[in-house]
Amino acid sequence: MAASETSDFEQVTVSDVSRSYGRRRALAHVSLTCSAGQIIGLLGPNGAGKSTLLGLLSTLTEPSGGKVRFGDRTARQAGAALRAQVGFLSHDLQLYPELSARENLEFFAGLYGLDNPADRVLKALTSAGLGDRADDVVEGFSRGMRQRLALERTLLHSPRLVLFDEPFTGLDEASSDALLGRLGDLRAARRIIVLATHDLDVVDGLLDRAVLLQRGRLRELGSEGTLRERYRATLAEGGDAGRVARLEASVAGASGPSREPRQ
Amino acid sequence: MNGFFRVAWLVMRKDLRVESRSREMLFTTLFFAVSCVLVFSFSFVRGGQAVDGAAPGILWIAIAFSGTLALGRAFERERQHDALRGLMLAPVDRPAIYLGKLFGLLLLLAAVEAVVVVMVAFLFQAPLFRHGWMLLALLVLGTIGFASVGTLFSAMLVRTTSRAVLLPILLYPVTIPVLIMGVSGTAALVQPEPDLAMARLWITLLMFFDVVFLVLALWTFEPVMTE
Amino acid sequence: MNKRVFPVLAAVSLLVFVSAPIIIVRAPYESTMGLVQKIFYFHFPSWMAMFLSVFILGIASVFYLFRRTPAADRLAVSAAELAAIFGLMGLITGPLWGIKAWGVWWQWDARLTMAVILELILAAYLLLRQYGGAGSDRLAAGLGIFAMANVPFLYVSTEIWRTVHPRTSVVPTLPVDFGVPLWWSFGGFIVLCLALLSARSRLEEQRATLDRLYLALEED
């Protein structure tokens, strides 16, 4: 049983990781340490490499350069046992719409080889607030209900590392408050939480740490003001204007046109 | 190990349950197979008389065409809602996922073939049931050969944008031996003087093909599916 | 390594190909086939070069899929392209022989059928590489393994299915007069195949280097 031969870890270390697809570089020399009991926010414009980084953290994508270590092991060394410690709630919810809420959870409980699957599923259904709709097919659920179900599915096997890709999009205020509460509980349970999001106002105050991904590069967010202000400031620093300014400074005095690399 | 066959069973049961709710794959594949056979019968049956020796080929072409349709849909279902990621993240031997998908497809294709065989026997006056058990062996082994390659290709093309075109392009050339073996074996059974020794030879060859390609598919599934 | 190997291989194959016509012309005139028999000195070796390439494609694919050696992937593309080209040569020279021997350009006999199917698989491989998008290298490696595994099945099934083609077993029993030029051009084709392989995979290597430089440039 995979769950018993766990390879648990307290820390995920991303060191000097790059990932490129042909000539397109999705991530460039990214380093990041995520520790238990921490919520890390992954911010940045679309196409900045957030999904790629989540993919790398989920063990499903391999880096082109550098290493991602879970505890002291890489994904390749740890194999399937490590995957038992990872939960990933992607933007598409990984649910089968033709199956009922209970069947969806039971299927994954079976795949993970969990003990007492029936109890766990029941508990999960209750905390998703779907106790009375357990046997309805997911097709008829609202976005919020699906999201709650998918969240429980992600946490069903109590993973150490929990990854979220845009978990707040499409949620009403009640649902997103519930999600915030849930994230707080996870932090208290010493999980490692990484979430990619655009909803800066919602997660302001929740994050223990915020990093910005821009053109595949990772930078720590500044500390002045609200999350949104910090985000804007850091973004501008690494944006076109900031880059041009820095380039001009570095080539000042040198003749010839300075070449701006393509997007 | 985490119960290799237990996982395969879970995946298959999940697929069958989904299918029993929507019946989408069964009905579309069946409809396609039936229209295939009908189109062939318009072209190859003249004046109530079928063209000599056409039946085995038509049987297998109908199976291959409709099989491709089903194979394409099988992983489309996993691609929607990103369910494939959920499967790949599960701490299981990934080849077991492949095997589960394959089993589900085999059951679906068996249902389709049952109809196609009867139709071909009826419309082309082919004595398909004269050596029923041998035909069954050919069909089972041929379908396993075709679907074992097809399931792998369908899985590996799931992230490709042009998968709908690429699946038949890759699948047909590689599975031509299955078609040759299936058609020749069936022909040996339905010709005026059945050649059972020949049919047995084709059955044996199909078995070899199935073993080799099933092993290869199980072996390559994991590295082909990881990014 | 490629850099040094290529000139040697190219020189050897050039030497063989320059001398081959002389040797082929000097070979005795075959009584039934006449002049057309000379095609054989190209036909058979081009098939052998194709099989060598398919074999290399299969092995390289295994290495790329399980070891992720980038060099193996470059070798696999090169081998696939060469296999397709040598196969095409076989498919062109075959009918030239067939029209004389069988009176028709094309026969669905075992070897021809197998040749066409293999050519189809190779075309599928190249199409996948072309239109498969990101990650198609790994998928192509999977297909490469299947292509190699398919050869024995194609051989056996087409062989039983139809047989008109002269058996390959005649080759070792050929009289010396015919044998020498045949093996001479056989050697030539194999060396040429290896020369092209090294040149083509070197081109891929340069492309990879270019990609790397491009990425390095983007960095700052």
Please give the structural blueprint:
The complex is a heterotrimer of chains A (263), B (227) and C (220).
Chain A: E1 11-21, E2 24-35, E3 38-43, H1 50-57, E4 65-70, E5 73-74, H2 75-78, H3 80-83, E6 86-89, H4 101-111, H5 117-127, H6 143-155, E7 161-165, H7 173-188, E8 192-196, H8 200-203, E9 209-214, E10 217-220, H9 227-238, H10 240-251
Parallel strand pairs in A: 3-8, 3-9, 6-7, 7-8
Antiparallel strand pairs in A: 1-2, 1-4, 4-5, 9-10
Chain B: H1 4-22, H2 24-44, E1 45-46, E2 49-50, H3 54-79, H4 83-89, H5 94-123, H6 132-156, H7 163-190, H8 196-225
Antiparallel strand pairs in B: 1-2
Chain C: H1 2-26, H2 40-67, H3 70-101, H4 110-131, H5 136-161, H6 176-219
Helix pairs in contact in C: 1-6, 2-3, 2-5, 2-6, 3-4, 3-6, 4-5
Walkthrough of the structure:
The complex is a heterotrimer of chains A (263), B (227) and C (220). In chain A, α4 packs across α5 (117-127). In chain A, strands 6-7-8-3-9-10 form a six-stranded mixed β-sheet, with helices on both faces. Chain A has ten helices and ten strands. Chain A is an alpha/beta fold and 263 residues long. Chain B is built from eight helices and two strands; from the N terminus they run ααββαααααα. The radius of gyration of chain B is 18 Å and the shape is globular. The two termini of chain B are 23 Å apart. Chain C is 80% helix and 0% strand. With 220 residues, chain C is mainly alpha-helical. Chain C is built from six helices and no strands. Chain C starts with a helix and ends with a helix. The chains are: A alpha/beta (263), B mainly alpha (227), C mainly alpha (220). Chains B and C meet through α6, α7 and α8 of B and α4 and α5 of C.
What oligomeric assembly is this protein in?
heterotrimer
Reading the helices and strands of chain C in chain order gives HHHHHH
Main β-sheet, spatial strand arrangement of chain A: 6-7-8-3-9-10
Helix content of chain C: over 70%
Reported for the largest beta sheet of chain C, the result is: none
Content-based structural category of chain A: alpha/beta
Largest interface: B-C, 32 and 31 residues
Q: CATH superfamily name of the largest domain in chain A? A: P-loop containing nucleotide triphosphate hydrolases
% residues in beta strands of chain A: 15-25%
By secondary-structure content and strand pairing, the structural class of chain C works out as mainly alpha
Listing every helix as H and every strand as E from the N terminus to the C terminus, the arrangement of chain A reads EEEHEEHHEHHHEHEHEEHH
Tell me the number of strands of chain C.
0
CATH fold annotation of the largest domain in chain A: Rossmann fold
Shape of chain A: globular
Class of the largest domain in chain A, according to the CATH hierarchy?
Alpha Beta
* Average residue-wise pLDDT of chain C: 83
